[in-house]
Design goal:
single chain; 221 residues; 5 helices
Length: 221
Amino acid sequence: MPDPLINAASGMFSGATSWATGAVAAAVFAIGGLIGYQLLLSRLRRRRFQNLELTPNVLLTRYPIVFLGRSRSLFRLNGDFPDLPLYLYEHGYQVQEITVPSHAFAKRNKLGTLAIAKALESFSTRVHLIAHPSLSEAAHDLVYSKNNQIATLTLFDESPTRDRKTELSPPPLPIFARPDLKRLASPIRFTYFSPSREPNRFKKEAIALEHMVSLAEYDLR
């Protein structure tokens, strides 16, 4: 005659196994969905740029434009700036992207500031730094540490609140706050899903281009 305790234990083990199998399957399905979605965005991005009309005779910067973003992940395989670097590159700008690890995201984090400074050491010239909103404060603090590799800093966000050490001192180099361009620092672009006949499909990028021209004018001073 079967032991009730053995039967109960067997049922519990079978239930746990089924739950674990279901959890693994759900995780695999979710990861596959994320990767598939990112690949779809990449394809739509390529299709969008097939309609790109270049603005002629733009003034180019003397120093390269460097986009500062977060390390890539399943949620942002194309990075924090999926379109703008390519848009500027097509217009003739020197464009590069650098990423920093997650500890740089914390507010007023010295490790984050050091991580950005370390990433900038690979450049032989000064750079126009464009910071992702999540890295605005770390990049802002780096400017006030008088880093010699930064020519200008552009924040796709509001200017961070200064700490007590810097609230009375002017910035050692130009800092531009452009919260109107924050949408360009999003890994998900709803523009991809708009009809191909929609006018001004690169409207935000064109506004950003005007800002890059102003940086080029600054280089001539």
